[in-house]
Amino acid sequence: MKKQPIGVFDSxxxxxxILNALHRELPHEDLIYFGDxxxxxxxxxxxxxxxxxxxxxxxxxxxxxxxxxVVACNTASAQALAELRRRISVPVMGVIEPGAERAAxxxxxxRIAVLGxxxxxxxxxxxKAILKRSPQARIIQQACPxxxxxxxxxxxxxxxxxxxxxxxxxxxxKSGADTVILGCTHYPILKPVLRxxxxxxxxxxxxxxxxxxxxxxxxxxRGQAAAQGKGCVRLYASDDPARFKRLAGYLLPGKIGAVRLxxxxx
Amino acid sequence: MKKQPIGVFDSxxxxxxILNALHRELPHEDLIYFGDxxxxxxxxxxxxxxxxxxxxxxxxxxxxxxxxxVVACNTASAQALAELRRRISVPVMGVIEPGAERAAxxxxxxRIAVLGxxxxxxxxxxxKAILKRSPQARIIQQACPxxxxxxxxxxxxxxxxxxxxxxxxxxxxKSGADTVILGCTHYPILKPVLRxxxxxxxxxxxxxxxxxxxxxxxxxxRGQAAAQGKGCVRLYASDDPARFKRLAGYLLPGKIGAVRLxxxxx
Lengths: 266, 266
Hints:
globular; Rossmann fold; 2 domains; alpha/beta; six-stranded parallel beta sheet
């Protein structure tokens, strides 16, 4: 069991930030990443569609013998996690709970803002998860559909990124939130511009580290954590692996190995 | 045959600008529109994926008894048209040829710029079609991946749109092009800001009107044009028809009828 890999999936590239965090936190683990580039983006699609994609990926990862599945995509975590846990025999962790936990612990004034895709915002998954922990919290949500294409264009440092972010952040600033959840795996790339707009007194919660710590705690508690050897990373994409590899260069620090094509059975 | 509808499809909403033009040009024709909202966007996907989606849609339209299929999506026109014509018995028209034709006729200095998605640019479909007509033409292509999400956010008039457009247009202006093809159905929404940046001496070619005229000429020549009655429009989406209907309000002038859900057999 200790030798089995961990499966990580996302609608596309964004989840590589989670893969990085897992690799840092669990350096002995073998990791398998699946980017659903044939069906990206999930953020604007229906719950039924997102659930269908997520199930097909989870079944593929299960067939590779993973011991744990990490849903790196916020939209899939928000919309498909319950169904995945019903239908998949391997344990499944999402990004919502760790992010909500961290935000609830961090906020001093109880005002929390959630940034996410349309799908994540519509699901109300973050507000529900936060209110379970802090029933008094006041939460606002802001969908930021232009953030993902901005990051995928590698335009995070251009003036347009700031202008777009200022537009989305107007409501967040007005709400008086002292804690802002970056509820999409692409958004941490925009941390510098968000910090510039929101100021130092606002804490940006990025679920990657929290999730990686939760994954380590989970595996350790079950005696399933790999204890030695250098973990390797295997990458799959459901469409255009060459493009995936090229864009992954913006998100991953090290050299990227082969990206294999795996079409989903939908 | 005259009474049979015309089928129009696009990866999502953008093709509604073509639907409008067809409705204006051919007011007696019944039109069926299919928006592949389950698989949008096509612009960043592989040729194999775009062809698979396009074939499934064309087969569905064929099953509804259409007399002509109009591929309103530039990416699908660029990547899947030949395959559609091989596999579908109904005539198929794309947007590339009419746009290239118009641009070749319009340009005085023979310098033409093509704006499109990554997929359209990569296919070189516009340069090939233009060079067939004007072998001396000098063509530059510019992928503009942020334009579609900008339009879908209804942000075409915000300062961010101008900043992003200025970035993309820098190369176009440098090229000295006097004719710019709006090679994606979403881009005509950005005409005001593009005109502001490029100036009045540059002609913006929008394939919607040209395509609609070509469709009328084609049906008239074959004696298949409907001559009387008010044509009706039927809308299908492959995912989340409620969202489709809401966003379609930005693109269609009149009242929007029911949007039916039709999942594709892939």
